[in-house]
Amino acid sequence: RVATIGDYDSDLAKVSIDDRLIPVRVQLTEESRSDLARISALRVPTATGGSVPLNAVADISVAEGPSVVNRLNRERVATIGANLPPGVVLGQATARFNEIVATVDLPASVRTAESGDAEIQGELFASFANAMLLALLLMLGVLILLFGSVIQPFTILLSLPLAIGGVAAALIITGSAISMPVLIGILMLMGIVTKNAILLVDGALQYLREGLSVDEALMKAGPRRLRPILMTSAAMAIGMVPTAIGKGVGSEFRAPMAIAVIGGVITSTFLTLLVVPVVFAAMERLGFKRAQKKDEELVPPAPPVVEEQQPGRAA
């Protein structure tokens, strides 16, 4: 290295000129650096203080190597990048790349890690999971405060998984993949789907407070709240249709989000009308049985009845 490209900058001798330190780099001439025979004849010092020719301790040949060695956390890094072809999303490309890497026999000291857009996507999925969990907790807290009960808010939150099937079906039918716009659409569905369950549960609770039974409250609340549920859900689904089929700049970003919302709204609307009343009735009966059992425990037992003896009569 010293003979061909010179020593490291920190080890170079320096000359002070006009209060400036000028590094002095010493190396072979251009002709000598391209002559393997001269490089092989270079003398290198030994441990005993002598010297031997370089070809006695090394094989001299012309080869290619990295011009720059990049490091991350003090480890050498080799970056492999590619442009995505039309119709292929980042998630599909990353999965395919991992499949190919699994078939390659890499050395034990080599490991792969995502970087660039793939790394950002991994962080996005982790952040999305945290956002979903936080949103569920906040929604649960608000519903408990509004309804004054812990049982029925869980009935409302049970409607959230009903939209996942519709999202998956819509993505499969249209051939779309899970991406950041789809995650944004799922986050939007959290408010849209719970709205239908809130309308139905709130209507049933109003009839329960009027003295009706659980079955009668559901039979009256269902038809009454069916119209606003269908109107709001249809308005949301129809409003997303132009975005789902739209063309132009940015359509590849907006279309998957609209497709996810449409599929989730359609399935959740119909399944909510079937599943939520059943769960609501089960929760109300379970809460009624617990309250009844608690009241029985609070009622003190009746005192024993003692019969009075009549005078003149033997006991």
Description:
The chain is mostly helical and 315 residues long. It contains 9 helices and 6 strands; from the N terminus they run E-E-H-H-E-E-E-E-H-H-H-H-H-H-H. Strands 1-2 form a two-stranded antiparallel ribbon. A hairpin with a 2-residue loop joins strand 5 (70-72) and strand 6. Helix 4 packs parallel to helix 7.
SSE blueprint and pairings:
Layout: E1 13-17, E2 20-24, H1 30-33, H2 36-40, E3 43-45, E4 51-53, E5 70-72, E6 75-77, H3 90-103, H4 117-147, H5 151-157, H6 161-174, H7 180-209, H8 214-245, H9 251-298
Antiparallel strand pairs: 1-2, 3-4, 5-6
Helix pairs in contact: 4-5, 4-7, 5-7, 5-9, 6-9, 7-8, 7-9, 8-9
Structural class: mainly alpha
Order of helices and strands: EEHHEEEEHHHHHHH
- Tally of strands: 6
Number of helices: 9
Q: Which short descriptors sum up this protein?
A:
mainly alpha, two-stranded antiparallel ribbon, 315 residues
Overview in brief:
The protein is mainly α and 315 residues long. The protein has helices spanning 30-33, 36-40, 90-103, 117-147, 151-157, 161-174, 180-209, 214-245, 251-298; strands at residues 13-17, 20-24, 43-45, 51-53, 70-72, 75-77. The protein contains 9 helices and 6 strands.
